[in-house]
User: Fold this.
Amino acid sequence: IYSLIETRPREAQEMVELLAALMRQTLEAAEENLVSLDWELETVKTYLRIEKVRLGDRLTVRLESNGIGPDWAVPPFLLQPLVENAIKHGIAPKPGPGAVDVFIRTVADRLEFTVRDTGPGCRKAPALEDREGYGFSILRRRLENLYGTGFSIEQRNLDPGGFEVSIRIPQQKLESALALNHA
Assistant:
């Protein structure tokens, strides 16, 4: 933000407003185990607008939820660390344009979240634990606490380049999930 103040003051102001919105969203979800898919998507869109100001035309984003209803239960900040990693490791370090795609779909009785980038991928195939940063390891622990073994995470390099992470969680309406958690 500081670097934008003198050269692009309107964008600096927009970044401050977006950052404030993201902070409010973070505080809203601080005590929640589950939020609506709609809330989660709005939070990701706020984060992506920040990155779009920062990266400009270098970043293209596609977000597809294929008509999935907004009232499905998801852990807060399920997608944001995945999108952040895609931008941080896939798009930002490489010169020129790149894309991040976010797909949400139902698979049997699961919600599947896939985040894909057009970056260089993971050159070396270290153990999963070695690839996980702080945000991703927190996400994994949160999913374990919520779903036990009832979730999955898959990571893979794409050919000819890029990286993809897919998470599957049980499909449940927010109202029903909250009622179960309070019982």
Remarks:
- The CA atoms of residues 58 and 117 lie 13 Å apart.
- The longest strand covers residues 98-107.
